[in-house]
Amino acid sequence: MSERCVKLTTYFGERDRTPRRLLADELLDIYAEHGVRASVLLRGAEGFGRLHHLHTDRLLSLSEDLPVVSIALDTPERIESLLTRVLAVKRKGLITLERARLASADDAVAATDAIAATDDERTDAEKLTVFVGRRERVGASAAFAAICDVLHRHGLGGASVLLGVDGLRGARRERARFFSRNADVPLMIEAVGSRERVAAVLPELRRMLHEPLITLERARVCKRNGELLEVPHELARSDEHGRSLWQKLTVYSSHSATHEGRPLHLEIVRRLRASDSAGATCVTGIWGFHGDRLPHGDRLLQIRRHVPVVTVAIDSPERIARSFAIVDELTSEHGLVTSEVMPAMRALSGATAAGSLHLGEHSR
Q: How many domains, in total, are found in the chain?
């Protein structure tokens, strides 16, 4: 059986501080002290939170406090053991907990067997995440490029390579520095595909990588290349124990994709910010693919960037339904849109807080 794990994700500003130092450094040290199995720190390109203040790398005056996403992964017991310290140093932003499982040799069989119980292969999907080093190699190729090639060959719907600037690998801190190869700084490849295709790709990934760290999470594919497949899960606001349930809406697109002449991811953020959405964050990748197009990234002498962009919005079920209406309109031609159940979320703003980090129960 595959091992259960919990993914702790924190969203905050690059310049957020504790009384001693930057919040990002404080969090990574907490994770290291607790021996967290894996963690990666991602620098966002654009986003806003509950107060609707825009943070973007496009304007010099707004680029000094870019959104930052910190992801830590380990057993439920270890993540629970460090939450008190995380809450003690983090005074604003968003904290979420999600259930996942570490992919094992049994997952190919288990996932394939589960296809028979799937109502619709097109929409009932798996999100597969692979953690590797920035300069890790598979033969003569960069590991992230080789992984994307395999994912594309197996027909997954898309994959985005997100570059870490700090993180843990095997409970060891690895930080990106100037004048360094930064070979072990972690990055993550996030891919979405049908459960059958994810099951088929797992054995090959395990053979090609040394001590691979691969996680699996359930997701619903709502749109693909402009085609509406399904709406986000219909959820009650709380489970039978009164614990709140939340939802995550993710749009996988390209930096070059546009809506009426404006970059698609920027228009999504603009429209969500003008609505009652609680927040959204964009992270730009370095390599990836969507649909049938071959894996690619930026090339020299390009006028437009051709890298993936991942845009995430987390909110209550009723507000996600309204946000999806906006996303549905804007992704009439491009993008892969997924929804996931978020069993725990806590939003912090100064002295006020909303939500809870007690994992809710739900059925898909």
A: 1
